[in-house]
Amino acid sequence: MPLLRIHLDSDPTTARRVLQTHREGGVHHESREAAREQVWRQGRTPAGDPVFVGITDGRRNVQLLYDVEVYSDTVP
User: Fold this and answer.
1) pLDDT tens for each residue of the chain, 76 residues long
2) Residue range of the domain that includes 25
3) How far apart are CA 16 and CA 22, in angstroms?
4) Contacts by 23-29 with C-beta closer than 8 Å and gap 24+?
5) Domain count across the chain
6) Full-model pTM
């Protein structure tokens, strides 16, 4: 199944907290659900849970990165 990379805008403090949560083996539910909603907004159907990939290296415009498997019949 194809992967869709999702970029979610964040602030540096939240991004560090999300990164730390994932490093400790947890899940940041709010950002994961936001990634899933972004997939739906793009007209695609998620085939599984979003997987946290990391954060961008920006000082002001930090983004959370998620990979989401989507069903191939929904990819344009």
Assistant:
1) 899 999 999 999 999 999 999 999 999 999 999 999 999 999 999 999 999 999 998 777 899 999 999 998 754 5
2) 3-74
3) 10
4) 27/52, 28/52
5) 1
6) 0.89
